[in-house]
Write a structure and sequence with these properties.
It is a single chain. The protein has two helices and four strands. 23% of the residues are buried. By secondary structure, it is an alpha+beta fold. It has a four-stranded mixed sheet, with helices on one face. A hairpin with a 2-residue loop joins strand 2 and strand 3 (60-72). The longest helix has 13 residues, at 13-25.
Length: 114
């Protein structure tokens, strides 16, 4: 198995985004296969910089700013978004992220410690 995390290749970004958006639109309910390997499921985690008064936008409620990761455990592809809004439904997949790593290795470890 590949233990090195690799950013999603630019040519694959549109299909990755489409699949990840599908997953997020369902508030992470159900399973979504990785669009690159079709073997593993996409995973998503958020890190909240600090809560604030909820803000509504586009029919969603956001609880603060932060960052988030999307990844596939199968082939270790990932996408990282350092400046994001954290939706209220993401509380179950929020982690404390101290090191600021772009790849999700620490996030995977933190989720496993729950």
């Amino acid at each position: 198995m590949n233990d090195v995390w690799t950013p999603v290749p630019p040519a694959d970004t549109p299909k990755w985004r489409a699949r990840a958006n599908e997953f997020a639109s369902r508030r992470l309910e159900g399973r979504v296969r990785c669009p690159l390997c079709s073997e593993s499921e996409l995973r998503i985690a958020f890190s909240l910089d600090g809560p604030r008064a909820p803000r509504e936008s586009g029919g969603l409620t956001f609880i603060g700013s932060g960052r988030y990761w999307e990844w596939c455990d199968g082939r270790h592809h990932y996408a990282y978004y350092p400046d994001s809004e954290v939706p209220h439904w993401a509380a179950a997949v929020c982690v404390r992220q101290a090191s600021g790593t772009r790849d999700p290795s620490e996030v995977v470890r933190l989720l496993g410690e729950r």
